[in-house]
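Re: Re: ligand-bound prediction request (bumping)

Still looking for help on this. To restate: I need the protein modeled with D-xylitol-5-phosphate bound, output as structure tokens. Inputs repeated here so nobody has to scroll up.
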Amino acid sequence: MIIAPSVLSFDYDKFNEEIEVLNKKAEFLHFDVMDGHFVPNLSFGPEILKAFRRSSNLFMDVHLMVDDPAYFSEVFIKAGADGITFHYESLNDIIKCDRLIDAIHKKYIKVGISVKPGTDIEVIKPLLDRVDIVLVMSVEPGFGGQDFIQDSYTKIMYLNKYRKEHDLKYLIEVDGGVNDKNAHELLQSGADILVAGSFVFKGDINNNLDILRKCK
Ligand code: DX5
Ligand code: ZN
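Reply:
Sorry for the wait, this slipped through. Here it is.
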């Protein structure tokens, strides 16, 4: 089980204290990059990633919710990303997605492909033998604190079955509305990486991460 706290919900007033806990109790840091076009919200640029990079050796898991993932993947790789996940819907073209996967892999960076809740998982099938991560959005991308969309289990179970049948190695990441009530079932369904923002950062993050870890 990999825990990927979403820093969209991070409390910057307690930077040193919170980063120390995350370094001890998480494996990934999940950066939700939003450009105000692909999603109706704006989050942060590469300088924030650089600040976390200076204070953490966790896997910097960048989730691009942007219209131009080719441009921003370069920007965030330069800022220290270990993985770049982009949305199929930002290119809507298998060939373009394939080329971007290639370009990112050429920089020795892990690549993830993500689909929104309303996108049929079948559309990314041609890419599944190329990616390191498949990010299943279990909320409409753009904001933290939304309710988990129950239908997400179907995609996770499909991806889990597909990788076994085709001997593929991608990890399944789930993102949005993840908490202690659904974490165990998500893992049982095949999820490997749990992104959590509000559940982790609301209240005592040390305790919240312990609770999440116990859901395995
Ligand atoms: C939403 C982001 C998610 C979100 C998760 O667009 O991709 O990572 O921040 O936040 P919670 O866990 O609060 O749903
Ligand atoms: Zn995310």
